[in-house]
Amino acid sequence: MPGPWRTRVDADGWEPMELAGEVVGEVHSLRSDEGGRPYEAGLWRVLGALPAPFAYDFEQNETIHVLEGAVVIEVEGGTTLELVPGDLVSFAAGSQAVWRI
Known about the structure:
This protein is an all-beta fold. The chain has strands spanning about 15-20, 20-35, 35-45, 55, 60-65, 70-75, 80-85, 90, 95-100. The strands form three sheets. Strands 4-9-6-7 form a four-stranded antiparallel sheet, with no helix packed on it. It has a three-stranded antiparallel sheet with strand order 1-2-3, with no helix packed on it. Strands 5-8 form a two-stranded antiparallel ribbon. It is globular and about 40 Å long.
């Protein structure tokens, strides 16, 4: 039987996150690639300046909960989301978007 999964977030538990060869923040993973199926659970944080805007393709279902700051996500197909602390949004695998943080 799989799980449960547990992690602890501390200053040393973060790794660089890259998109198209450019660092766009740091990640802390709880779960990744379960049984050969892409699955990810964890945290992402932005450090410093980011390329603005940047494209992001959701390779798997992904849910975002904004804890601080703000982001505008333009989803291919016409939806534009302006997210602030407390907002929670979920994307289906295969969605494509442009982010402005």
